[in-house]
Amino acid sequence: MSATAARAVRGAAGVLAVAALAHTLWNGLAEPGAALAFGILVAFGELARRDGPGAPGYRGAPLGSAGALAYALLGQNSGGPTRHGVPETVAVVAAAVLAGTVPHIARGCGPAADQLARRVLTVAFAAACFRPLHTSGRLTELAGEGPYLVPFLLLLLGLAALCDAVIAAALAGARTERPYGPRLREALRAQLGIGSAVCATGAVIALGVAVAGLWAVPVFSVPLLVTQLSFHRITAIRTTYRQTITSLARATEIAGYTPPGHSRRVAALSCAVGRELGLSERELTVLEYAALMHDIGQLSLVDPVPAGATAGLPGAEARRIAGLGAEVARQTGVPDEVAVVVERQADPYREQPPLARIVRAANAYDDLVGANRHPGGALAALEQLRLGTGHDYQPEVVECLARVLARGGRGRVVPIPPG
Predict the structure, then answer these.
(1) What are the DSSP calls for 356-398, one per residue?
(2) Is CB count within 10 Å lower at the N or C end of the chain?
(3) Are 258 and 295 in contact (CB under 8 A)?
(4) Model pTM score
(5) What is the pLDDT of residue 1?
């Protein structure tokens, strides 16, 4: 059902874009100057995108998103009313997005079709809410042209952000079979931060053009452009940091203390369980780092643990290894909360922080089935984890782990997303 809904969303976006382009080509542009100015802004915003296919909509190209929303909510230009309708708005935005995407596609790193569908549908929603009210004159009756217009625009932008989150959650169903509720919560959290800046910039550009004309477009776009460039630098730093931690985590595999790929499998499975439980993006980042480094304490051992399986060790020995790993983690400069998760992963689950409970369950499962060591396979390994829910593993985490594995196939998990 999720995959069907995602195909329906993409199909609706494609049909809407084609119909809007055909309508505009047949009838011409009502305001060529405004269409050109905002088309250039949206295309430039797409050209400035640097973070590839996996980036969320607003975070991937915030300047283009703000320009598209501003064009949809543009009521006046230099004091005179604007005349472009919903089809023209969608057509200009769709054409600009495609124009700005071509160079990325030529380099083999263009945005996913889902992002283009979200952009078209979100702008169409905003324009459908605003343009008819503006054209009919009812907007003046409802909000006037004074201070009440600003909160009205912000309300529409908030609804557009909500629409984008709903569409994003629906499209995510094609990539994962997680329930819709957690996907929607994750999409709503993604709207915070840069999403708020996009909405505020869109309102400021629309109001600025109403008074100062199209010259306001580049002037009011500069702050968000600087923010976008800063975001790209932060993303690059985070990517490098994550790669460093991943390389450090492989030290136990290279030294022969753990099986190849163990830390990456535990991290991927932990993140999948964390998303199922509705963790925030920051919590998922901490969880991923801790899962990657959970076995780093084994480097301090003289005699390696057989097959690197710490889940079967006595509690005192497992906690000693976890404490050694926390010391190594702190020396690498990771946030202290990452080291705490590493340190507490071997404690009884009632004494653990929530993230450590996830790492412990994921590690135990991979220790049992990662190298086909459990004679009963994945189902028997899960049953063994369930038997340990009285002391070692949190029942909710184990059941969530079972749901994740059931959707992805026994022993199969989704890869860790970048960033």
Answers:
(1) HHHHHHHHHHHHHHTTS-STTHHHHHHHHHHHTTTTTS-HHHH
(2) N
(3) yes
(4) 0.71
(5) 46
